[in-house]
Design goal:
Strand content of chain A: 5-15%
Strand order of the largest sheet of chain B: 1-2-9-8
Radius of gyration of chain A: 21 Å
Number of domains of chain A: 2
Shape of chain B: globular
Order of helices and strands of chain A: HHHHEEHEEHEEHEEEHHEHEE
CATH topology of the largest domain in chain A: Alpha-Beta Plaits
Number of domains of chain B: 1
Order of helices and strands of chain B: HHHEEEEHHHHEEEHHEEH
Number of strands of chain A: 12
Strand order of the largest sheet of chain A: 10-2-12-11
Structural class of chain A: alpha+beta
Distance between the termini of chain A: 36 Å
Structural class of chain B: alpha+beta
Largest interface: A-B, 70 and 48 residues
Oligomer: heterodimer
Number of strands of chain B: 9
Largest sheet of chain B: 4 strands, mixed
Bound molecules: iron/sulfur cluster
Helix content of chain A: 25-40%
Shape of chain A: globular
Largest sheet of chain A: 4 strands, mixed
Strand content of chain B: 5-15%
Distance between the termini of chain B: 73 Å
């Protein structure tokens, strides 16, 4: 599946051929409606009577242009800037919020890896709280990317683990283990997507283009770690709680009927910051870093601790290790 | 002499705890001057000073979203992965500088607090002035009700196991050296050496800032109460939950 990876900020010509069929599908749609420009005015003209303030008109035009845009990987830099400008303006028009959407690309020579210390985790769930807030997760559907499992000492048995514990932690005779998307090096979720809406970036983060996803949920079935979440409704995040620091492939607004998942806080980590979960953990159980840097913390853990991964026999090569002190 | 020395240390520490570089430097110069002028040995004091003043204050000039209010001390004694030096966050003397950082809607507060504000009876020299105070056990408990002394109880230690006998504001290392309260990891590492190694390497303790560039670590006493080091149990975040689908986890 390496041919599907985007190779940098500019789209790989290989991707064009790969996605040509889908691009054609969209193009056909706009031709059918008489081209983008005519289609736009048609939509504006057919708008329901009544709500025709300049703002609502502008919002409809922007929404239409958004509808006929391409897959993020096939966009040129200019097209990316345009769609970001539209999305930012739409957020302002619809919700009155001033969001910043980045399109920061992967840093060269960086592949992210994560390690989780099961001797340290106390089950506080501070990571989950930070993730919900950082990534604008749906408050109504109570979406969370991370789960913390409570298990009895002695054996890793996720079948009999409890991820819904409500008592004071750490509980006597129990240990805790967190899961999230493991950013597999050979991700089955990417292989099954029929429209190329999800792919692995050069820094190892598997991302979703929320505007290209058709919501078929194949990827959810393919992921052995139950890392993906489907939006049954439009995610609800109160304006006051919205994180306006966003990334196109990360925590920007999602819509109903699309899949989302952990993206290692792409808007933070590509700028050198730690993911919100790693930074929020009060126990230091979470180690994050660059796998290609032999001097990184994550490499120290891999070299000096006993590590294991979940369901290694499936050969998805998760980039998420567990270790003990 | 002891009294003068102690007073000087006191001045230096106070200056530092007030986060005032100028006063700190002034105090150091003053003490050096006095020491030389009188030809008296100031080795310990000088050491204490060099440790407090050699701190690279990075203060608030950090990237947006990075740790803003915490000054850092550069640690060369323990090295990070790749033999790189790293910074340890310091408590500052300003009680308003409790570290907080916003995540979307919530504000994360770590247990990093002003050391001076944190220690109810700081500066120690307000009682332990210039001479060693040895108290009966029950008197110690009286004077330091805020300290739960479970660690010394378990290990059979006394105050003087960790605190310098003639200046309680300094920590006594087994090597005979003394360290300021901002360098507790040097004391803790004497027994907890495997933790210290993992801490320096990044597998123990909380890290702030980023995975790239400057590394900032929390010191031992930022998370653990040195007198009662176990973490307190707590009620977990009770946010939204996801029920597991049938058969997942198989
Ligand atoms: S739900 Fe979306 S991302 Fe997942 S396989 Fe279907 S189209 Fe691809
Ligand atoms: S953990 Fe699941 S969603 Fe994440 S990369 Fe692997 S297969 Fe895909």
């Amino acid at each position: 599946m390496t041919s599907e990876r985007s190779t940098g900020p500019l789209p790989d010509p290989g991707d064009h051929t790969l996605l040509q069929k889908r691009v054609d599908r969209r193009r056909a749609l706009s031709i059918l409606l008489g081209g983008a420009a005519i289609g736009t005015s048609a939509v504006a003209a057919c708008a329901p009577l009544g709500a025709t303030t300049p703002e609502s008109k502008e919002a409809r035009l922007l929404a239409w242009r958004e509808y006929i845009k391409g897959n993020y990987r096939t966009m040129t830099e200019v097209e990316r800037a345009e769609t970001i400008a539209r999305l930012e303006r739409l957020a302002e028009l619809k919700r009155g919020v001033d969001v910043t959407i980045q399109s920061t690309g992967a840093q060269p020579g960086v592949v992210f890896g994560y390690a989780f210390n099961i001797s340290k985790c106390q089950g506080f769930r501070s990571c989950i709280e930070a993730c919900i807030n950082e990534n604008n997760l749906d408050r109504r559907a109570a979406t969370q990317y991370i789960r913390i499992f409570e298990m009895e000492d002695g054996v890793v048995d996720l079948d009999h683990a409890d991820a819904t514990f409500q008592h004071e932690v750490p509980a006597e005779g129990h240990f805790y283990m967190g899961t999230q998307c493991f950013q597999c090096a050979d991700p089955p979720c990417v292989k099954v997507c029929p429209v190329g809406a999800t792919w692995q970036e050069p820094d190892g983060i598997t991302v979703v283009d929320y505007d290209w996803c058709i919501g078929c949920r194949y990827c959810m079935a393919a992921c052995p770690y139950w890392a993906r979440r489907f939006n049954w409704g439009e995610p609800e995040v109160p304006v006051a709680e919205l994180n306006t620091n966003q990334h196109y492939l990360g925590n920007r607004a999602r819509k109903a009927g699309v899949v989302e998942k952990c993206h290692f806080c792409i808007h933070r980590t590509r700028k050198g910051q730690l993911p919100a979960c790693a930074e929020a953990c009060p126990t230091g159980a979470r180690v994050f870093g660059n796998l290609l840097d032999p001097d990184s913390e994550i490499r120290w853990v891999l070299a000096n601790k006993r590590v294991f991964r979940l369901k290694e026999d499936l050969k998805t090569e998760p980039r998420f290790w567990y270790f003990t002190d | 002499m002891t009294r003068v020395t102690t007073a000087l240390v006191c001045v230096a520490l106070l200056g530092m705890s007030a986060g005032c570089r100028e006063r700190d430097r002034a105090a150091k110069e003053e003490s050096a001057e006095l020491g030389t002028r009188r030809g008296e040995p100031v080795a310990d004091v000088a050491r204490a000073h060099s440790e407090t003043t050699a701190i690279a204050r990075t203060d608030t000039a950090v990237a947006p979203g990075a740790v803003a209010t915490v000054a850092s001390a550069r640690v060369d004694l323990w090295r990070g992965p790749g033999d790189r030096p790293f910074d340890v966050t310091l408590r500052t003397g300003d009680p308003a500088s409790a570290m907080s950082r916003r995540f979307g809607r919530i504000t994360l507060r770590t247990s990093l607090r002003s050391r001076a504000a944190d220690l109810g009876q700081y500066p120690c020299t307000s009682c332990h002035l210039g001479r060693r105070i040895v108290l009966a056990d029950d008197r110690v408990a009286d004077a330091h009700q805020n300290i739960k002394v479970s660690h010394p109880r378990q290990t059979g230690g006394t105050c003087a196991t960790c605190h310098s006998a003639d200046n309680v504001e300094l920590l006594a290392l087994k090597s005979g050296e003394r360290a300021t309260l901002d360098h507790t990891y040097r004391l803790c590492a004497q027994c907890h050496f495997s933790q210290a190694e993992a801490w320096a390497a990044g597998a123990h303790g909380k890290r702030l800032d980023g995975w790239q560039g400057r590394r900032v670590l929390m010191g031992c006493a930022d998370c653990h109460d040195p007198h009662d080091p176990a973490l307190e149990p707590r009620i977990p975040f009770r946010g939204p939950r996801i029920e597991r689908t049938r058969g997942s986890g198989k």
